[in-house]
Amino acid sequence: MNNLFTIKRPSRLRAVVATAVVPPLLALLAACGSGTGDNAPVPASAPAMAVDSKAAGLLPDSIKSSKVLRVAIPTNEPPTQYYKEGTKEMTGINPDIARLIGDALGVEVQIEVANFDSIIPGLAAGRYDMTVSSMTPTAERMKVLNFVDYLSIGNSIAVAKGNPVGVKDEHGLCGKRVGFLTASYQLTTHVPEYNKECTGKGEKDIATYQYQDTRQAISALTSGRLDAVLADSPIMGYAATQNPQIEVVANYGVDPVGVGVPKSSGLIDAVGPAVAAAIKSEGYAKVLSTYGIESAAITDARVNFAQ
Fold first, then answer.
1. Which InterPro entries is this protein grouped with (predicted)?
2. Please, which residues have CB within 8 angstroms of residue 7's CB and are 6 or more apart in sequence?
3. Would 56 be classed as within a structural domain?
4. What are phi and psi of 24, to 5 degrees?
5. Half-sphere exposure (CA, 13 Å, Cβ side) for 83?
6. What is the number of domains present in the chain?
């Protein structure tokens, strides 16, 4: 598979990072480099979780035997997932949540990095066991995957500094050139809704441009090829602290995101209670409180709750 490599790392050794950028951290993040993730902050390691023997006992025999959980995670997009400085080792909220789940199940998490739009096909083909990729459960995705909620994430719109196109919110995107992550919830679910609004106002639809990661979209924005970028708030908030050529003009909406596993694997029986244990753990609370984003936490690991 293109742009795919495998990382093995013991599930009990990890670094904690935030799911979003909040005011107390802006000065810290602004000093962290170019926004590639190479110099993104890496706070102290979270405590390991104890094994949830009941959840572990529900693992499919193949994973019980291998004691390895292959977890698909998207490409480099700090702070949700990024490479530790000078390495090809992934850290960030999604890798660390995956490792908490691995702890609960008593297995090693083997992170496999892939483009977002290749994750569902890879799960269907058996190349991965699970994904922790800020993926919003939708009715369409739930045709092939089971989901367990693990976090709530908002949306952000970024424009060139000074907002030359005058976009104030999601209702002002009609006729604009807007960049999206390929196969993202914003592109597949929000854009059709926004275009209906555009039609009702007698305006042109949003001109959508797709990218494999938001860094590519931001590059297009700063070079004048886009008018705006719409993506997950944690990623856009961090990018704005790293790139003085862009600014975030709107933060809105909160949607749960879920751990995804193939319907045919039977893994949901173990992952459901493991995620429920993870979100009640000290590690989960610490990763949110460290960055002042307690409001992103969830208390109910809902299974197959479509957005």
1. Solute-binding_3/MltF_N (IPR001638)
2. 88, 89, 90, 110, 111, 112, 113
3. yes
4. -60, -20
5. 15
6. 2
Domain that holds residue 89: 5-153+256-296
180 burial via Cβ count (<10 Å: 0-12, 13-18, 19+)? buried
Whole-model pTM: value is: 0.84
Whether residue 137 is preceded by a cis peptide bond, meaning omega within 30 degrees of 0, is: no
pLDDT (tens, 9 = 90+) of the chain, 307 residues, equals 333 333 333 333 333 333 334 333 333 333 333 334 444 545 445 457 899 999 999 999 999 999 999 999 998 888 888 888 888 888 888 998 999 999 999 999 999 999 999 999 999 999 999 999 999 999 999 999 999 999 999 999 999 999 999 999 999 999 999 999 999 999 999 999 999 999 999 999 999 999 999 999 999 999 999 999 999 998 998 899 899 999 999 999 999 999 999 999 999 999 999 999 999 999 898 876 665 567 779 999 999 998 8
Question: CB-based contacts of 270: which residues, under 8 Å, 6+ apart?
Answer: 55, 56, 57, 58, 59, 60, 63, 105
Q: Which long-range contacts (CB under 8 A, 24 or more apart) does 193-197 make?
A: 194/170, 197/171
Please check whether residues 250 and 188 belong to one and the same domain. Answer: yes
Residue 304 within any structural domain of the chain: no
